[in-house]
């Protein structure tokens, strides 16, 4: 079959072709054309249009075209539904749907900026979504700190690309990479209230209101910050990482933010804590 959609794909128009070729129509041909030509070309080429207003394979309410493919073709694989939440959040700018959504959007925004060849983007997207599917199938429960090599890779990226000399302006790609890595760190070190409510099948407003009763009299956000600080203390006690490295590895935007939250949680600066810990 031929499948046709709008040119200049980014999120849904790369995710859906991946889904088509991996689970719906392995021999399917994906065609990208200008928006105004999709329906005409679909008729001429006998192709199925998708991700376009007014066609069957499209957005419905708060769900995107990827969701409709799953429903239409009765794809029950839990991994695909985990990916659907991420795609939906990235494609509709609702990052509360899944914490990975912002990272996915950043990656494909960067790829689309670098390449104007739609099929080159699709080729790269196939690799990325294959990796995302493996994560959603086998690795989605793993946390960042469980795998040492991941931690080392983040530090390597930090030292090679993100650590800037004072006064030296970082290039645009470095700023984008910083945001992407920060999103990834936040994914591993935090859980969104929306995600928790969906997993527990509890209304998010109710969960937010009742949370403090059972979690140290803290709000959801304060409790998650407490968990980050506990992770940071563990790294201080068991590694030789610098405080700047620890701040990055525990998902803080910068060391000053880390210092402020650490002092609020423990009553002392992280440098003082680390010094006292080394004396013991």
Strand content: under 5%
Helical percentage: 55-70%
What low-confidence regions span 5 or more consecutive residues with pLDDT below 50? 144-150, 170-188
Shape assignment: elongated
Tell me about the biggest sheet?
A: 3 strands, parallel
Along the chain, the helix and strand elements come as: EHEHEHHHHHHHHHHHH
Number of domains: 2
Strand order of the largest sheet: 2-1-3
For the termini, the CA-CA separation is 69 Å
Number of helices: 14
- Helix-and-strand structural type: mainly alpha
Compact overview of the structure:
With 280 residues, the chain is mainly α. The chain has 14 helices and 3 strands. Helices cover 64% and strands 5% of the residues.
Description of the molecule:
The protein has 280 residues and is mainly alpha-helical. The chain folds into 2 domains: 1-141, no CATH class; 156-280, Homeodomain-like (Arc Repressor Mutant, subunit A, Orthogonal Bundle), CATH 1.10.10.60. Helix content is 64%, strand content 5%. It has 14 helices and 3 strands. It has helices spanning 12-24, 38-45, 65-72, 78-91, 101-114, 118-139, 148-162, 172-189, 193-200, 204-214, 220-238, 243-249, 255-266, 270-279; strands at residues 2-6, 29-33, 47-49. The chain has a 3-stranded parallel beta sheet with strand order 2-1-3, with helices on both faces. Helix 1 links the parallel strand 1 and strand 2. The chain is elongated, with a radius of gyration of 22 Å. Residues 144-150 and 170-188 have low confidence and may be disordered.
